[in-house]
Design brief:
- The structure is a single chain.
- By secondary structure, this protein is α+β, with helices and mostly antiparallel strands.
- The chain has five helices and twelve strands.
- Strands 1, 2, 3, 4, 5, 7, 10 and 12 form an eight-stranded antiparallel β-sheet that branches. Strands 6-11-8-9 form a four-stranded antiparallel β-sheet, with no helix packed on it.
- Strand 8 (166-168) and strand 9 form a beta hairpin.
- Helix 1 (9-26) packs across helix 3 and helix 2 packs across helix 3 (90-107).
- The protein starts with 8 loop residues before the first helix and ends with a helix.
- It comes from Pagothenia borchgrevinki (Bald rockcod).
Length: 238
């Protein structure tokens, strides 16, 4: 995988077109190493550690619940949502701007997607007590999420010792892809049912930042469905 420390916009464009787009089209995922470099990546890591130590990260939520099943048996991470504009998130904002530039280049070449917006950034920590996240799909119900991007922040990580591997089960294939959450690694993958994935139990503190890019047409349709559902539920019964 290419190392891309201190790259220019032209280099980002080249990597997006030559590496990310073909890999997404052929395999459904792609990762790049050395995205920010030791110094800038270290600044992002320190800001995430500061958030964790300040108690900003809270238990990750589930959509719905299963009777008799505890949340932590499904997902054991602690998270916070940030825009990057908050005080103390300057390096995170730099990272998000870089990812935005790469996705903007990719968007014109990827299927018929119209990618014009993204989520806030989800800063996540698995606390190292064996916590993970069971096999799931980010966008199983056409909510608009198109591409998942995860930036990892874990120095001296050993999958054998620490676990914490993200395992992707690409749809229609007989293989799995194991992605170690190594420092300064950026992962891209389709958010829909093409890429079920899990976070295997982590036995050391594991940090990551995730953003989701939206297909604007699918997102608008999802919002219409939600509005119609909400409106119908508010109508008085006759």
């Amino acid at each position: 995988m290419p190392f891309i420390e201190h790259v220019s916009d032209a280099d980002l464009e080249r990597l997006a077109l030559e590496r990310v787009v073909p890999a997404l089209q052929d395999f459904g995922f792609c990762y790049l190493d050395g995205v920010l470099g030791e110094v800038a990546g270290g600044e992002v890591l320190q800001q995430v550690i500061d958030m964790h130590q300040a108690g900003v990260l809270q238990d990750g939520r589930l959509v719905g619940s299963v009777p008799g099943v505890h949340r932590s048996s499904i997902r054991g991470d602690k998270i916070a949502w940030v825009s990057g504009m908050e005080r103390g998130c300057e390096a995170i904002n730099f990272l998000l701007n870089m990812i935005d530039k790469m996705i903007a280049v990719c968007a014109s070449r990827l299927e018929s997607k119209k990618i014009r917006e993204r989520s806030k950034a989800m800063v996540a920590c698995y606390p190292g007590n064996g916590a993970g996240y069971v096999k799931h799909v980010d966008n199983p119900n056409s909510d608009g999420r198109c591409i998942t991007c995860i930036y990892y922040l874990n120095k001296d990580w050993s999958a054998k010792e620490h676990g914490g591997v993200l395992r992707i089960f690409p749809e229609g294939t007989s293989f799995v892809a194991d992605i170690e959450p190594l420092f300064d690694r950026l992962l891209f993958f389709w958010s829909d049912r093409r890429n079920p994935h899990e976070v295997q139990p982590s036995f050391n503190t594991r940090y990551a930042i995730t953003v989701w890019y939206f297909d604007s047409e699918e997102r608008a349709e999802a919002k219409r469905r939600f509005k119609n559902l909400t409106d119908s539920s508010l109508k008085p019964s006759s």
